[in-house]
Amino acid sequence: MTILVTGSAGHLGEALMRVLRGAGRTVRGIDIKASDFTDHVGSVADSALVRHAIKGVRAIIHAATLHKPHVATHGYSEFVETNINGTLNLLEAAADAGVDAFVFTSTTSAFGSALTPEPGAPAAWITEDVTPVPRNIYGVSKVAAEALCELFARRHGLPVVILRTSRFFPEADDDAGIRGRYETANAQANELLYRRADIEDVVSAHLAALEKAKEFGFGRYIVSAPTPFSPGDIQELRTDAPSVVRRRFPDCEALYAERGWKLFPSIDRVYVSALATASLGWKPKYNFRHVLSCLRRNEDFRSPLAREIGSKGYHETVFADGPYPVA
Q1: How many Cβ atoms from other residues are within 10 Å of residue 312's Cβ?
Q2: Three-state DSSP class for 39?
Q3: Residue ranges of the Ketoreductase domain (predicted)?
Q4: Amino acid 323: pLDDT
């Protein structure tokens, strides 16, 4: 079965291409950038290119997108062209070709303002049942693309699985305050408690979705490292998150202290990926317990795949005041 991966020169796209090739799968990549993992150079917004690239393909993983860091550098029409029109091009070509599976990489950013509770309110417990309230063109474009995916599943019989992935980028946080108070590894270790996944686990979720798409017909899942928290924790997470963490991981304090690391004082949302693990048979390996195990052995907690790919960034330009501009 030939698999098409869009965004093959990007962080997730390259990871997918590496893993699929390593498993001996027949895979081809499409991206606007030439790379060792790009077979077709061009945009998914080019319908003729898409139809050429899809010939003989039985499954599609659509990871190409303009991201949140592009909000400050790209116009609304560019987001519409790539994230909405590009997705529509792929869906139409996939439906016409009768492909067996279409996996769409979406984002937890689609939840938007639903992720930020009012002052004094408990942390938001984010499951697939939460209604998105997009706060920028990135979120709007991804929610619109999701709606197109669902339309093609319901009306055209195209097997589609949508994965709302949490953070997996290796770059430092775009929040200058976080960068100033926490080294990158410290911040990203903390995020594995509630809003981050390792790239290896994100890849395995996509491959699990490929296998289940035809059986399910349609599905939408959050992909994030399994959280150790429960709904009973959400009030205290907002006011004293370290106490909640230390109750579950008593050795965390000493392991962090050895490195001068700190837990976040407050957590405002928790992504819940239980449905993905239960329904897709997804088995993520990289969570906060794994982080602490690595700290005991003085090892890097990132997966070998994450270390191999490294940092790609989102722009050709290097910005003086952060990893990327903030809108």
Answers
A1: 15
A2: coil
A3: 1-181
A4: 55
Of 249, 321, 241, 242, the C-alpha closest to 291 is 249
Amino acid at 163: L
Pair 134, 112: CB distance under 8 Å: yes
Q: What beta strand segments (E) does 118-179 contain?
A: 124-126, 160-165
pLDDT of residue 310: 84
Q: How many CB atoms lie within 10 A of CB 34?
A: 9
**pLDDT tens-digit map of 91-142:** 999 999 999 999 999 999 999 999 999 999 999 999 999 999 999 999 999 9
Q: Which residues pair with residue 221 across a beta bridge?
A: 163
CA-based radius of gyration for the chain: 19
Q: Which CATH architecture has domain 2-309?
A: 3-Layer(aba) Sandwich (3.40)
Give the pLDDT confidence of 33-45 residue by residue, as tens digits.
999 999 999 999 9
Return the closest-CA partner of residue 69 out of 201, 169, 147: 169
Burial of 180 (0-12, 13-18, 19+ CB in 10 A): exposed
Dihedral sign computed on CA atoms, order 99, 27, 277, 313: negative
Question: pLDDT: is 148 or 71 the higher one?
Answer: 148
* Two tokens, residue 289: 């317990």
Model confidence band, residue 317 (pLDDT cutoffs 50, 70, 90): low
Structure tokens at 7: 């965004």
> Considering Cα of 253, then 257, then 259, then 265, what sign does the dihedral take?
positive
Residue 2, beta-bridge partner list:
26, 57
